[in-house]
Amino acid sequence: MISPRPDQSGRRKKRKPPARAIAQWLDFIRPHLDRYAQAGRGEQKKYIDDLSKMVGTGVDTLRRFIWAAQFLESHRITQFPPGIQRMPLASVEVIMRISKRDPVYLANCSPN
């Protein structure tokens, strides 16, 4: 007879609660962009960790917010139009992926 492993004892592991969703993520993350960009690599990690604890959102989620906001700002988009209630972060990420593969976009893209 095979004895069950500890994780198969019939009890489920307690899961972490889902991170708090931020509907207006661009408005939330914009004040933090400059400080994040000016910080060194180790300081960026510490800043994101502290912000994550303060807000209750995951570290990876905050990094995704920052990357998407930097992409939008590179295209001079600093806020969403007033009629839009929320812009899904995944939508901006898809646009980033498409733009990286589009030769017309790359040909017209000015170097920073």
Q: What does this protein structure show overall?
A:
With 112 residues, the protein is mostly helical. The protein has one domain (22-108). Helices cover 57% and strands 0% of the residues. It has helices at 25-38, 41-55, 59-74, 89-101, 103-108. α1 (25-38) crosses α3 and α3 (59-74) crosses α4. It is globular, with a radius of gyration of 19 Å.
Overall geometry comes to globular
The overall pLDDT average reads 79
User: Approximately how much helix is present in the residues?
Assistant: 55-70%
Count of domain modules: 1
Give the radius of gyration: 19 Å
Main sheet: strands, sense, barrel:
none
Unreliable stretches (pLDDT < 50, length at least 5) are: none
Q: How many helical stretches?
A: 5
**H/E topology pattern:** HHHHH
Structural class category: mainly alpha
Euclidean distance between termini CA atoms: 66 Å
Number of strands: 0
Percentage of residues in DSSP E strands: under 5%
